[in-house]
């Protein structure tokens, strides 16, 4: 009785936080030191086996620049899940992530599964945002939190897997 479920998912966060790199790692198992900036948004898909079901993620990777902000609702409105990404070496990116969370809480799908990903966890020596600070924020706002590294692959599949487990399945 294998089931196939489709879910729209969106990645939001500051430009340079590593959204495209996380998707590339998840979908293709690759990492690029010089990942090109996303223009507008890019679409990817990947399937995951979760318990007795196959979950197919249809993923919108957004640009993150302020000038594309007005396009963002097109990508998050129909989304079942969102990963909000910041860079642990940038306090500004964490501030920006919190703004995205607020926007989704106000205007997103109320049942959306939200994950907060503190990316670039391999850059411990340049860390500006503590894991504790992010964990507390995530708990207070009903998100689940993980630190990830698209570079070393740490926790990348895990974020998607955790989302898949939390998604409602008919
Ligand atoms: P986006 O604008 O959020 O899509 O960010 P990108 O995926 O384009 O990444 C921006 C830059 O950060 C690129 O040069 C990546 O190689 C780098 N990068 C992304 N993820 C990581 C990571 O986990 N660790 C390190 N050290 N660099 C990363
Ligand atoms: Mg990008």
UniProtKB/TrEMBL annotation:
<dbReference type="GO" id="GO:0015031">
    <property type="term" value="P:protein transport"/>
</dbReference>
<dbReference type="GO" id="GO:0010008">
    <property type="term" value="C:endosome membrane"/>
</dbReference>
<comment type="similarity">
    <text>Belongs to the small GTPase superfamily. Rab family.</text>
</comment>
<keyword id="KW-0449">Lipoprotein</keyword>
<keyword id="KW-0547">Nucleotide-binding</keyword>
<dbReference type="GO" id="GO:0003924">
    <property type="term" value="F:GTPase activity"/>
</dbReference>
<keyword id="KW-0813">Transport</keyword>
<keyword id="KW-0342">GTP-binding</keyword>
<protein>
    <submittedName>
        <fullName>Ras-related protein RHN1</fullName>
    </submittedName>
</protein>
<keyword id="KW-0653">Protein transport</keyword>
<dbReference type="GO" id="GO:0005525">
    <property type="term" value="F:GTP binding"/>
</dbReference>
<dbReference type="GO" id="GO:0007034">
    <property type="term" value="P:vacuolar transport"/>
</dbReference>
<keyword id="KW-0472">Membrane</keyword>
<keyword id="KW-0636">Prenylation</keyword>
């Amino acid at each position: 009785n294998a089931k196939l479920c489709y879910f729209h998912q969106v990645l939001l966060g500051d430009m340079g936080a590593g959204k495209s790199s996380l998707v590339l790692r998840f979908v293709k198992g690759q990492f690029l030191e010089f990942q090109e900036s996303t223009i507008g948004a890019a679409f990817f898909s990947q399937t995951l086996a979760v318990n007795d079901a196959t979950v197919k993620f249809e993923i919108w990777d957004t640009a993150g620049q302020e000038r594309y902000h007005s396009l963002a609702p097109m990508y998050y409105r129909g989304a079942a899940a969102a990963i909000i990404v910041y860079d642990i070496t940038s306090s500004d990116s964490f501030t920006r992530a919190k703004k995205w969370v607020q926007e989704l809480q106000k205007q997103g799908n109320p049942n959306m599964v939200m994950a907060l990903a503190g990316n670039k966890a391999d850059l411990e020596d340049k860390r500006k945002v503590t894991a504790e600070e992010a964990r507390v924020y995530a708990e207070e706002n009903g998100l689940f939190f993980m630190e990830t590294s698209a570079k070393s692959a740490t926790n990348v599949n895990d974020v998607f897997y955790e989302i898949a487990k939390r998604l409602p399945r008919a």
